[in-house]
Amino acid sequence: MNGYGDTMVQYTERMLQQWQPGQVFDVHVEAMTLTLQIAAKTLFDAEAVQDVAEVSQAIDEVMEQIAVRFRRPFWIPDGIPLPSNIRYRRGVQRLDQLVARIIAERRDKAEDRGDLLSLLMLACDESGQPMGARQIRDEVITMLLAGHETTALTLSWTWYLLGQHPVIDAQLAEEVHAVLGECSPTVDDLPRLRFTGQVVSEALRLYPPAYAIGREALADCEIGGYLVPAGTTVYASPWVMHRDPRWFDDPQAFRPERWDGNLAKQLPRFAYMPFGGGPRICIGNRFAVMEATLILAAVAQRFRLEWQSDQPVQLMPSITLRPRNGVWVKLVLRPDRSPT
Question: In this structure, which CATH number among 1.10.630.10, 1.10.10.60, 1.10.1040.20, 3.90.1150.10 belongs to the domain 2-210+242-333?
Answer without folding.
Answer: 1.10.630.10
